[in-house]
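Think of the structure tokens as a kind of shorthand, similar to the way a musician reads notation: each symbol stands for something richer, in this case the local conformation of the backbone. In the example below we present two proteins back to back. Begin with the first one, reading the sequence and then the tokens, and try to describe in your own words what changes along the chain.
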Amino acid sequence: MPWGNRVSAATKHRMKYEYLNDNPFTTKGATANWNKVADQYTPVTLDDIQAANLKVQWRVCYGNSFPIVILSEVQALATKLREEKALKEASEKEAALVAQHGPEKLAEIRAAEAIAKQAAVDTAAAAETRRRTVLQISHLMQLVVDGSAGLNDSQVKRPAPVPPTMSKKEAEEWFGLKPSKLPTGEKVGGRWQYPTADVVASFRSLGAPTSTLTRRGWGVYSGNTRASLEAALTKLNPADAPAIRREAAKTVTTRLNKGAMEAAAKLKDAEAAAATATRNVTHATTLLGLSAPTAAPVSTLGTAMQPAGVAEAAASAIEVAESSDDEVGGWPSPPLSEAKRGKGKAKRGFTELDEEDEWIPNGEEKRGRF
């Protein structure tokens, strides 16, 4: 039959699709002009590509031919050539060292280099360990200082012994812990007992300020932090312990001095603001015709000097200004032009209020204004 070998359109489309997807030269981005990408794949050359039997297509543009290469194959060839080059250089360097020092001397030199390298690694590790230890000790010292804020001098000098455990009631009252925040305890003699160290750790994990502690809670908190500090100091190397303790104490002292300086600066700013406020009150009393100026703080002034008294004085002064044309007896009267403008506004149905109020029509009262 003449039509027995005919291929359907669907089959042709499938064959064309498979060809386009299996052929890297028809895949976008899989190939490139070698003349444009040769610098990216050093030390590969076109001769290396041809020697490795890689797929290359030659194309022509305006009479100039150029090779099209598959980038993935060129990348693999470049990696292989670089590795071979590195191995060759290493072998040449090794042969040169052997020729220069001899096998035995070269082995001694390399052993010394290995020892020096390991010593450098050990020194860096020891420095990092020391830094972390100083940071840990300084943190515990800071906790000890913070925990002594609620104690008096006698309690600081002679701290009370810290019980190893405490009851549920004591943990809730001293540290303000809710039952859900209590650590794992143990029932002894029909009562639940909780390790003191775990209770203090739970209190710290909540982030609550130490000012919420009771008097007994302060003592337990301070004693626990001291015990933690002493335990950490005991684990240190006796030869390094004094130096680490001094360095940690210096860190804490520097931090405390910085905090004290910042607090002093804030206090100074607050005092300046209070002085400015007092001076403003004094100026207000003078300008509004009240009693003689005084430098007393606002909180110690009498009723006439309080904001309500100042408002009353301002109202009385405005009344005097409106009923008097004499500048000595009250506020100076407005010029004639301003008085006329005021009458004009009254005719248009508006009344002028205080500076802080609004313009409202005559005969309409605004709630809270009159």
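Once you have a description of the first chain, move to the second and do the same.
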Amino acid sequence: MLSSSSSTRPVDEDTTKYNPLHKSAEADKFQIFEQWLRDNGAQFPQLELRQYDKQNDTTNNNHDDNEGLCYDTIDNEAEEKKDGGASDMGQSADSVAMMSLDNNNDATAIDDGSNEMRSVHATSPIPPQTVCVSIPKSCLITVEMGQQTPIGKSILHSDVELDAPKHIFLMIYLLWDRKVNGSKSFFAPYYNILPQTLRNMPIFWNAEELQYLEGSHLLTQINDRSDAIREDYERICSISPHHFPTIASLDDFRWARMIVCSRNFGLLINGHRTSALVPHADMLNHHRPRETKWTFCEERQCFTITTLQSIQAGCQECGGGWVLSE
């Protein structure tokens, strides 16, 4: 069983310690996040975070579309299908969500999470075939890390059937580490910049907001997704009745599910197919045609993003369905 201290850094990784001085009251949480990555070997020298300008953004800002794009199309095909068509919901429902939230007359009535968003822009021209982002393996959260938590082990030793199990193990690590280790977690700077509301996703809308979708099949998809999430939560509680409910409520579980399904990457890491949360890289939004490609580089032991065409200074960094925003 993993102890609380063992999750402050992935096992068998020799990384530079996070400097607690970066937690000064004056420091912005996104600056802390970037410094944490740099301290541990990440590189993104020609990129910078900016306040997300939703009104002037011309990209297809569909985080949930990540789910279909980041999975390996062969090994993870069944996983995608089990997830209930999230990419379709992302393309349609997210845009409807943003319209209804943006057009609300009372600007203070609905928080759509825009204040939590950042976009990533090029600080200087970036030529084609440039590795513009490099995130070391030590900063990745993988399926295997979730499997090694006490709850993950309980799931593996049970015969319970779960919807999209790779997602589940990423969610388990995210929820468990945040609860058990909190601010002492190695990944705390990453957790701190994750959106806390996800109000742009229809699954979190209230009854009044869902009225905008009356007559649409999206309502059925939303209800099906909600039912699948609730059933997974109840199944995990049944095999860990004294532990899991103390780690996460159903609302926490729903939040983690949307975080993971909108951000995870299907990767081949040292010959092993897995899925992972990749800090910084998961801030990329969808954009076509793609302007970058990503992979796990075994030589560097890093997740890398490489440009496929020239990126002009000031432009958002775009990739196989991405432009960065939080």
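Compare your description with these statements about the second chain. The chain has twelve helices and eleven strands.
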